[in-house]
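ok new one. same drill as before - structure tokens go in, u give me an amino acid for every spot. 63 of them this time. try not to just spam alanines like last time pls lmao
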């Protein structure tokens, strides 16, 4: 299971999929979050599989 954490929510997804697919599957917009695994930033085409835990961090912009 891929474990996905975003703020106070958690999901467990089965199978292998890209970071972008995971973000879309949990109902978020890919351009609004960054994916982090083991303290490292992931690109949207990074493949995830069983035993992966990914934290989604909101992108904040300002001016």
């Amino acid at each position: 299971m891929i474990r996905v954490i975003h703020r106070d929510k958690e999901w467990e997804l089965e199978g292998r999929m890209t970071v972008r697919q995971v973000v879309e599957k949990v109902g978020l917009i890919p351009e609004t979050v960054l994916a982090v695994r083991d303290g490292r930033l992931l690109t949207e085409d990074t493949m995830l599989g069983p035993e992966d835990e990914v934290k989604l961090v909101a992108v904040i912009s300002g001016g």
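The helical segments are 19-25. and btw DSSP finds one helix and seven strands in the chain.
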